[in-house]
C-alpha cells in the first residue's frame, strides 16, 4: 500500500484520467467526513464544487452502505449512478435480489429488536434491504460489539456481516456487493478503467478484485487492506479531486453529455 501523493501514485492517477476512467466513491468517510450522528453527514462545499467540475469531464458513481433514497438526498452534485445498500440497491440487474434481501431484513429485524431495545447506545437502522446496527454511543463499545456479533451469528438465514466504524452491517448472503456493482457500472457506462475510493471493510470487496483496470485508493493507511494506494485522511479527497481536474485541464477534453 503506497501513498497516493508520492510520485508513483500521482503518475497512476494521471494515467487513469488520460484513460477516461470511471470515478467511483464510497460516501461516509470518503466524500463526507465521519460524524457522531450519521444523519448529519454531508459533503463539504469545496468537495461538491470539485465533483461538479469532475462530472463535466467523466462519469461519476457513488456506491454506499446507506439506503439509496438517503444517499440521493446527500448528493448535491450530479452522478451517473447512485447505488445503496453496499452495492445492491439501484443496480439495474439486482431487481430479483431486492425481494430476497427485503424478506431477510424483516426477519433479522424482528429477531434482533427485542434483544437490543434495552441495550444503551445501540440503534438499529433498517435500510429495507440490509440492517445497520450502530453502537457509537455505547459506553462499553467492545462489550457491545461482541454481543452484536454473537446475535448476528445466530440469525437464520445467516447474513453476511460487514464491520464498519462502530457499526455492524447485516447483508443478504449472495447479494451483489460493491465490487460486483462497480464492474457492472463500468460496463453500463462504457468505461474500460475505473478509480475507486473507499474507507471501510465493505470497500475491500472492490479492493480485492485486483483488476489491472482499477485504481483502488483507501482513506486511511491499513496494512491489511488490498487497496493499491491510500490517502492519509478524508480531508485529502479534495487534494485528489483538484489534481484530477488539473490533469483534465491539460488533456483538454470534456465528456459528451
Structural summary, described in words:
With 257 residues, the chain is α/β, with parallel strands linked by helices. It is built from 8 helices and 11 strands. The protein has helices at 7-18, 45-55, 68-72, 95-116, 141-153, 178-189, 204-207, 237-251; strands spanning 2-3, 22-25, 60-63, 81-83, 123-126, 130-134, 159-164, 167-172, 194-198, 214-219, 229-231. α2 (45-55) runs parallel beside α8. It is globular and about 60 Å long.
Task: Quickly describe the structure.
With 257 residues, the protein is an alpha/beta fold. The protein contains 8 helices and 11 strands.
Features:
alpha/beta; four-stranded antiparallel beta sheet; 19% strand; globular; 257 residues; 11 strands; seven-stranded parallel beta sheet; single chain
Number of helices: 8
List the uncertain runs. none
Summing up helix and strand content along with how strands pair, one would put the structural category as: alpha/beta
Q: How would you sum up the major sheet?
A: 7 strands, parallel
Q: What would the principal axes of the Cα set say about the shape?
A: globular
Order of helices and strands: EHEHEHEHEEHEEHEHEEH
Percentage of residues in helical conformation: 25-40%
How much strand? 15-25%
Strand order in the sheet with the most strands: 1-11-10-9-2-3-4
Q: Can you give the mean pLDDT?
A: 94
Number of strands: 11
Radius of gyration from the alpha-carbon trace, in angstroms = 18 Å
The N- to C-terminal Cα distance equals 35 Å
Amino acid at each position: 500500500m503506497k501513498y497516493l501523493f508520492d510520485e508513483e501514485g500521482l503518475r497512476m492517477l494521471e494515467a487513469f484520467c488520460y484513460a477516461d476512467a470511471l470515478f467511483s466513491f464510497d460516501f461516509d468517510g470518503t466524500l463526507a467526513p465521519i460524524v457522531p450522528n450519521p444523519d448529519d453527514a454531508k459533503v463539504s462545499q469545496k468537495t461538491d464544487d470539485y465533483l461538479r467540475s469532475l462530472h463535466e469531464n467523466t462519469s461519476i458513481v457513488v456506491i454506499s452502505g446507506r439506503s439509496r433514497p438517503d444517499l440521493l438526498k446527500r448528493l448535491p452534485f450530479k452522478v451517473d449512478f447512485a447505488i445503496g445498500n453496499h452495492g445492491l440497491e439501484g443496480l439495474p440487474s439486482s431487481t430479483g435480489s431486492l425481494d430476497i434481501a427485503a424478506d431477510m431484513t424483516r426477519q433479522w429485524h424482528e429477531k434482533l429488536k427485542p434483544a437490543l431495545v434495552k441495550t444503551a447506545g445501540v440503534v438499529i437502522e433498517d435500510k429495507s434491504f440490509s440492517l445497520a446496527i450502530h453502537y457509537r454511543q455505547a459506553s462499553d463499545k467492545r462489550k457491545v460489539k461482541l454481543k452484536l456479533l454473537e446475535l448476528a451469528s445466530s440469525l437464520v438465514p445467516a447474513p453476511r456481516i460487514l464491520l464498519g466504524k462502530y457499526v455492524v452491517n447485516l447483508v443478504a448472503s449472495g447479494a451483489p456487493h460493491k465490487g460486483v456493482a462497480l464492474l457492472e457500472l463500468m460496463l453500463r457506462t462504457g468505461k474500460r478503467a475505473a478509480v475507486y475510493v473507499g474507507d471501510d471493510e465493505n470497500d475491500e470487496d472492490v479492493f480485492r478484485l485486483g483488476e489491472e483496470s482499477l485504481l483502488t485508493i483507501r482513506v486511511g493507511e491499513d496494512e491489511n487492506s488490498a487497496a493499491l494506494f491510500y490517502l492519509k485522511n478524508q480531508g485529502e479527497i479534495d487534494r485528489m479531486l483538484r489534481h484530477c481536474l488539473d490533469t483534465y485541464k491539460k488533456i483538454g477534453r470534456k465528456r459528451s453529455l
